[in-house]
Fold this protein.
Amino acid sequence: MGKGKAKAKQAKGRMKETAGRVMDDRGTQAEGSGEQLMGKAQESAQRVAERVQKPSAR
């Protein structure tokens, strides 16, 4: 998964979390929060993978 998809998942999660707050729906709010965390984890994993593939300039 690329950085763009991870960012999109984070944005979708933020929207879901906000919708959950507005509608006072804790399930939707928690689901959105979880999606945000998954997006952040995927973005971090992508960053690590890029660093591993990139030769270090020492």
The two ends are 29 Å apart (CA to CA). The mean pLDDT is 91.
